[in-house]
Amino acid sequence: MPKFVLLLRDNGTYPTYSAEEIQKIIQRYHDWSAKVQMLAGNKLKDREGRVMKRDSVTDGPYVESKEVMGGFQIIDARDYDDVARKCSDHPHLQFGSIEIRQVDEV
After folding, report:
1. pLDDT tens digits for 63-104?
2. For residue 64, which phi and psi values (nearest 5 degrees)?
3. pTM
4. Is the N end or the C end of the chain the one with fewer CB atoms within 10 Å?
5. What is the Cα–Cα distance from 62 to 44, expressed in whole angstroms?
6. Alpha-carbon span 58 to 106, nearest angstrom
């Protein structure tokens, strides 16, 4: 079955949540991941990273973009329509967008 990477994007700013609210949000992500049998994934560290180009390495990607990559997940699905169906209730949609890319298993 094809594998798809979900690139979780948001604007890098969040309202102030209580510790209890944060735990509920984290639980929603865990529940969703278990439901679709996520193969791999993780949250990326906030406000860190580098952008490499042929002749340079710069801090970022935040300097160059209003949208940041907050994390990634890898799932199995039949096709893009199947991924979209599986992601229709993804908790990340409350905070930003999800870019879906099929893994090209060469």
Report:
1. 455 678 889 999 999 999 999 999 999 999 998 999 999 999
2. -100, -5
3. 0.84
4. C
5. 13
6. 31
CA–CA distance, 68 with 93 (Å, rounded to integer): 14
Rounded Cα gap, residues 43 and 40, in angstroms: 11
Length of the chain: 106
CB distance 1 to 76 below 8 Å? yes
Count the neighbouring beta carbons within 10 Å of the beta carbon of residue 41: 15
3-state helix, strand, coil in the chain (%, to 5): 25, 35, 40
Strands (E), the chain: 3-10, 40-43, 50-53, 56-59, 68-76, 96-102
